[in-house]
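Hi again,

Forgot to attach this to my earlier email, sorry! This is the prediction with phenylalanine bound. I've pasted everything inline since the attachment limit keeps bouncing my files.
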Amino acid sequence: MKEKVSERTNFGTKLGVILATAGSAVGLGNVWRFPYMTGENGGAVFILIYVGCVVVLGIPCMISEFIVGRHGRSNTARAFSKLAGDTPWALIGYMGVLTGFLISGYYAVVSGWCLQYVWASLIGHLQGDPEYFKTYFMELSSDPVKPVFWTVVILLMAYFIIEHGVRNGIEKASKAMMPTLFILLLLIVGAACVLPGADKGIEFLFNPDFSKINSDVFLGALGQSFYSMSIAMGCLCTYASYFSDETNLTKSATQIAVIDCVVAVLAGLMIFPAAFSVGVSPDSGPSLIFITLPNVFQQAFGAIPTIGYIVSLLFFVLLSLAALTSLMSLHEVSTAFVQEEMGMTRKRAALLVTVTTAIIGAFCSLSLGAYDGLTFFGEALFDWFDFITGQIFLPVVGFLTCIFIGWFVPHDIVRSEFDKGGKSRYHHQIFHGFLFLIKYVCPLAILFIFLHQLELLK
Ligand code: PHE
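Structure tokens for the complex follow:
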């Protein structure tokens, strides 16, 4: 078994580490959830609170997962077991893998919709009145064949990247996709911000409204920061198992967090100016990107339809890239697990994960209208996956990881991982600050979100 571990590859470059992990973090959450939450929760004030949550809670949680992953140099389940020994703490790793696996089926469905919209934009189907966009999306999501087809297509894309390995697959693909995503984002932000009336959208996003601050705003920002940074899904731990000893975990986590925040704010700058310029009030969730935005782009650039066509197409390409890099990281969690725990080749492991995820994805997709039998207690299977992974598993795994690193793992192990890759002037203070946050502040904060989400705390 030892040999297998030492055969493991690492990411080849520091840039590869940052872009791949940022690829996991930057996803649909940045584009459809962050802008809307910002607008609804007091604009600039929300952004400030969000950044506070990222610094105080998100970054320390990210570092903790990095520590477990790099120390273990193996898939998430085994990485936790290596530190936990025979104690029940080892279960956290298995839960992380399970969470990553379950969420990937559901995430693949939404990613598939993005691809379908790229296709629809390309062939000129995304044109019509507001009612048309609504019907188009409703028909698509409840169709028995199309969304399943696109789910399989995006999973196959993830498969082809993953089967090429860490350096030639994940790292290379991230190095191509992330800069492309960034350029597309800047192009669309540029186009949106020069529209007449765009300033109202910018104001909506950046004008602080202190009257909106309440506990919901804090808890919303907290939950969003965890989801957006891919915490507690096994992704960070798995990717960190490919970090070399030269990687400075604190610095990398900070850089990734900055990229994630910048993309989220830019997504707001892409959406609100365009929406306000045509007087459409932005919605949340799937209907924002799949119903409201195509309509907004069409109206906003109505004077020059070619530009409307191009912006809409580029937007869905951007969205698909963001979704694919996140889906890839979820896929890798299970692939690394299957490969190492079941002794399979990477290709076979990746194929098995692709097929099983596609099956889960198909059931999730079919539960949205094609088959009534996939509805439990009045909610579609799709929504159950969203609820169980996002609102139960994510906080539980996040909470236990903090307690594990803060209270169980010997501090010299934590410290030795923390020290690798160079020290800054305040390294000692930063380490103690990290320990304090991970021991007390993070678990309490996660506990609050958890109870609040289950409406046990109002
Ligand atoms: N961070 C991703 C986003 O913002 C979502 C995600 C969560 C991806 C967990 C992978 C793992 O959309």
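The radius of gyration is 21 Å. The pocket of phenylalanine is lined by residues 24-25, 27-30, 227-228, 230, 233, 235, 326, 329-330 (CB under 6 Å).

That should be everything now.

G.
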